[in-house]
């Protein structure tokens, strides 16, 4: 009797594990590495958070690429995994400053307050296009 229970339990476990591996869920959209430089009045700052909002309404449900600037103003986009990039397309770029000093900000000078215009996708004039190349260097973004 114990052997029958063991066999049935083992078969059930293998079936359950097999079924769990059959569906890997929805496929992630393809992303392309993208990097650039961000400045405020021509000066780079560490710790500025950039969020790329898709301009195409058809892309509204996909994860938004984001980045945090380094002391030299450089950034690399992340969507699913660190520095993996973003989906090819056109974006409106929103810039924000963390309210708490981050370790990145301590490496450089704290950025000034960012005008409200650049903090909303509806009003920002910062734009970027991620191409289909294996590595994309985006044009510099600057808040005047």
Summarize, please.
This is Carboxypeptidase regulatory-like domain-containing protein. The protein is α+β, with helices and mostly antiparallel strands.
Structural summary, described in words:
The chain contains 2 helices and 9 strands, in the order αββββββαβββ. Strands 1, 2, 5, 8 and 9 form a 5-stranded mixed beta sheet that branches. A 4-stranded antiparallel beta sheet has the order 4-3-6-7, with no helix packed on it. The model has no long low-confidence stretch (mean pLDDT 84). Strand 1 (34-40) and strand 2 form a beta hairpin. It has helices at residues 2-20, 103-107; strands at 34-40, 43-44, 48-54, 66-68, 74-76, 89-97, 127-130, 136-137, 141-143. It has one domain. With 144 residues, it is α+β, with helices and mostly antiparallel strands.
Offer a few descriptive terms.
single chain, five-stranded mixed beta sheet, four-stranded antiparallel beta sheet, 2 helices
Instruction: List SSEs in N-to-C order.
Output: HEEEEEEHEEE
The biggest beta sheet is recorded as: 5 strands, mixed
Helix count equals 2
Number of domains: 1
Rg from Cα: 22 Å
The amount of helix comes to 10-25%
Termini separation comes to: 79 Å
Low-confidence stretches: none
Q: Assign an overall shape.
A: globular
Q: How many beta strands in the DSSP annotation? A: 9
The protein's oligomeric status is single chain
| Beta-strand percent range | 25-35%
| Computed structural class | alpha+beta
Q: Mean pLDDT across all residues, rounded?
A: 84
Protein name: Carboxypeptidase regulatory-like domain-containing protein
Organism: Tuwongella immobilis
């Amino acid at each position: 009797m114990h052997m029958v229970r063991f066999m049935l339990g083992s078969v059930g476990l293998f079936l359950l594990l097999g079924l769990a591996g059959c569906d890997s869920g929805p496929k992630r959209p393809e992303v392309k590495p993208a990097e650039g430089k961000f400045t405020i009045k021509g000066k780079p700052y560490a710790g500025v958070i950039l969020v790329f909002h898709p301009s195409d309404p058809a892309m509204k449900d996909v994860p938004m690429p984001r980045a945090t600037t380094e002391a030299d103003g450089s950034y690399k986009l992340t969507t699913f995994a660190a520095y993996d990039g973003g989906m090819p397309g056109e974006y409106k770029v929103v810039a924000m400053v963390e309210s708490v000093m981050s370790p990145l900000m301590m490496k450089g000078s704290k950025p000034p307050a960012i005008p409200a215009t650049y903090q909303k996708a509806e009003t920002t004039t910062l734009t970027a296009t991620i191409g289909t190349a294996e590595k994309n260097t985006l044009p510099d973004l600057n808040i005047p």
